[in-house]
Design a protein that fits this description.
Largest sheet: 2 strands, parallel
Distance between the termini: 47 Å
Radius of gyration: 21 Å
Shape: elongated
Strand content: 5-15%
Order of helices and strands: HEHHEHEHE
Number of domains: 2
Helix content: 25-40%
Length: about 110
């Protein structure tokens, strides 16, 4: 993987690495990065940052999001395009793939 993003920053700043696993493929975490010129990072105070699951803190963030939802501040219901049964999953994936709807939720009864 070649390092290009840091050179795009005009001065000090941070570049976030994402989709590292999809680029690594079957190699998993064993990915080699070429950072050139490395001195650019030092002299211009640039940063390389990674993100694992959006860098969220599950123990803090999930209860906070649940509270916002129950208070009516976080509008999640509006994000659901349709509710489906488990046996309708394949059809729902086809419809989402075509762009007709954005999100299906499986409803167990």
């Amino acid at each position: 993987m070649d390092w290009v993003a840091s050179r795009q920053l005009p001065g000090a700043g941070a570049t976030l690495l994402k989709k590292l696993m999809s680029q690594a493929g079957s190699k998993g975490f064993d990915v080699t990065m070429t950072i050139a010129p490395a001195m650019d990072l030092l002299f211009q105070e640039k940063q390389i940052r990674g993100s694992w699951y959006g860098s969220s803190n599950v123990h803090r963030d999930v209860p906070a999001l649940a509270k916002l939802y129950t208070e009516g501040t976080l509008l999640l219901d509006e994000l659901i395009s349709q509710e489906i049964k488990l046996e309708q999953v394949n059809e729902a994936l086809d419809v989402m793939g075509s762009g007709e709807i954005a999100r299906s939720v499986i409803k167990y009864s």
